[in-house]
Amino acid sequence: MKQLEVKLLECQQVKAVDIPALFKDNGVSYNKIDTVDWAAEYPYCPSVEFAIAHKGDAILLHYRVEEDCVRAEAGTDLGPVWQDSCCEFFCSPDEEGGYYNLESNCIGTVLLCNGKGRENRTHAPAAALEQIDRWASLGREPFEMRKGRQTWELALVVPVSSYFRHTLENLSGKTIRANFYKCGDKTSQPHFLSWNPIALPSPDFHCPAFFGELKFL
């Protein structure tokens, strides 16, 4: 099981657009999402890396991606963003309250749900989604497939209040199980990558048994 220490950044208000520079100034390290769990059927492995930090009451995320095409047709939150060029952060704040899937396509359209398994998941209320600040280097407007080598970035500020079935106040000192993914179900080269490996016979990200561990400093 992979483990990461999540650095605390001493800052008050943070906008998603400022995260890349903030991470650079504070030496936040990047980690690859490069485990091709189902290589026989889905061998394509785009270049993907993420960085994560926190400011006590919010998680800060930055993804950097280079791939052979991009797709961003989902323009409304809670839509099928996994069909697009998509980065995902699944996490379980505790053992009882299920896990959250925070999925975002390359234009910052978000899907956030909670549950204990793939089925019967509960969508985040609008108020929780509206609190997530997003910045996307490709802009926020939907577009169809763009082929050829593409490079893009995505940054998110996720307040702890967005985790709508938990009462989280300060992340410092907490250990949370989590995994990071990259997918693109309806891109020209469908792919399913993970940070922590998944030992299952077919693609499935809804598997908390294979989450890694995040230690919030």
Structural overview:
The relative contact order is 0.25. Strand 7 and strand 8 form a beta hairpin. The chain is 6% helix and 43% strand. The chain has a single domain, classed as Immunoglobulin-like (Sandwich), CATH 2.60.40. It contains two helices and 14 strands, in the order βαββββββββαβββββ. Strands 1, 2, 3, 4, 5, 6, 7, 8, 9, 10, 11, 12, 13 and 14 form a 14-stranded mixed β-sheet that branches. It is mostly beta strands and 217 residues long. The model has no long low-confidence stretch (mean pLDDT 97).
Mean pLDDT across the residues is 97
Please state the structural category: mainly beta
- Rg over CA atoms, rounded to whole Å, is 16 Å
CATH structural class: Mainly Beta
Largest sheet, strands/sense/barrel: 14 strands, mixed
- Uncertain spans: none
| Tally of helical segments | 2
Please count the beta strands (DSSP E, at least 2 residues each): 14
Order of helices and strands: EHEEEEEEEEHEEEEE
When the domains are counted, the total is: 1
Q: How far from one another are the termini?
A: 19 Å
Percent of sequence in beta strands: 35-45%
* Morphology: globular
What CATH calls the topology is: Immunoglobulin-like
CATH architecture label name: Sandwich
Helical residue percent? under 10%
Structure in a nutshell:
GO terms for molecular function: carbohydrate binding; hydrolase activity, hydrolyzing O-glycosyl compounds. The relative contact order is 0.25. The protein is built from two helices and 14 strands.
